[in-house]
Amino acid sequence: MVTTIEEGNQVEHESGYDRQRELKLLDDSKAGVKGLADAGLSKLPRIFIHDNLNICSSSHANASIPVIDLGSLHHEQGNSSSSRHEIIEKVKDACEKWGFFQVVNHEIPRSVLDEMLDGVRRFHEQDNEAKKELYSRDISKRVYFLTNFDLYTAPCANWRDTLHCALAPGPFDPHQLPSLCRDIMMEYSNNVKKLGLRLFELLAEALGLKPSYFKDIDCAEGLFMLAHYFPSCPQPELTLGSSGHWDTSFLTVLLQDQVGGLQVFHENQWLDITPVPGALIINVGDMMQLITNNKFVSSKHRVLAPKIGPRVSVACFFRQDHPPGTFKVYGPIKELLTEENSDAIYRNITVNDLITYQDSIGLNGVSALEHFKL
Fold it and tell me: Which of 317, 319, 89 is nearest to 208 (CA)?
């Protein structure tokens, strides 16, 4: 009988294989995926192996998410920046066709971006005993560390550890954050909040709504940060860093390093999102698709496991899911239900309804929005 998860797929053909036991061994170690990588595995444990996995991607020159220069939003004159109207049209086109775009000249200093990534590395690469103090599956906590939020519900585990931080709404004590990255997390999140408000204005104007529309209905009120760490993987062709999924947010702001591996599913193919130094990736979440009645699309995306890592990323989700009991009900925006498109596609729900359902099914390759269609 195999007794350690490190022995992984030695049990692949044994009739006595106990998946739940293997999952619990990983969970109880509180060392995450990095603990396995540090043990020097040469083969993946079976719980990480994705059946029939195809990690090939298309690299067509004309098939890449738009890069939008926000420079002229901050300055009256811009040599290479578009006018506000042109920016709004580009955002509209990206949200309708891709659900993804990258922004440059967003006014968050490059030094802040670099230090944020360094802070995430410092946290994940510290001594295991220090990290274990934060390890938890109690999602009511404002700050906690774990591996795979859907470890026990998803079909396969992903090669990733995550620091979870519910920074807003409500009063938040920064001292809950790990001291190794506390200051930069607060500085970065404050910058992201400002950028988010600007982006919500652009999205509103792209839909013909007043600029403050999304702010007024509290889409920018909540901020949930996931600081991901993807260690080097011994067999990256057999697993994923993050399975194909859709975000539950209204809007997501993603900071990634230069390792690469992020892909978006577009026109029935996986496309690489090549890192642009200093850029931030913006994507539409399920809640935005719901309230815009499919005018803006939430697109499926995934992360490949790195052969040479680590890969580090920071996803900031604009969604107000904390504290419990204060959730606002959202449905398709009435102003967008025109004569040509008069029928609401989705029923009214709270953000928590969507998150709870997503958590119950895990990252299983199926859009949680399907569950809320009328």
Answer: 89
